Amino acid sequence: MAASLRALFALCFVASSCLSVESVTSCFDKSIKVKSIPDSHLYAKKQKPLVIGHHGNPSKFQENTVDGFKSLEDLKADGMELDTFLTKDGELVVIHYDNTLILTGERHNIWDITYEELKKLDIKSTLTYGTKQYNFGKTRKIPLLSEVIDAVKDKELKHKARLPTKPHRKRKRRPSRRKTRYR
Fold first, then answer.
1. What homologous superfamily does CATH list for 52-162?
2. Quick one: CA dihedral 109, 112, 115, 118, positive or negative?
């Protein structure tokens, strides 16, 4: 109860400092008359925030899929963000992870396989993130960057892409530093 009263007081304080109020006797007073924010106030100049589809629309479609990026227009998103990796044959594919295990169930480093091999893999229709499981109804493919750009070229979306600057190096596994105790 005390926490909700503090939150209400904070809300009233913010509201009274941001809005032009004709008469304020109490936060709980029902007779408060509120005017619009004056043009000279800091909040009057504030632009609306940009809504960016991070990895597409991962609540409705598997992340970084063509369908996910196409659906951003229905959400009235301002832009999209995606990650890319180079395949062994130099194709730019749109995927967040450097390995296909999480999305497809098969372990392949993106830079170790060709796009033809990657096309044979399906992104699972059900994915688990933390303790929440998402069912997307069908499997989808890992797209090329050019496929995503073609799919959204007629939409007014801003693009933010993480492009590789150099080919990836194979990671060497380091031995575990954890000491094993024997009894």
1. Phosphatidylinositol (PI) phosphodiesterase (3.20.20.190)
2. negative
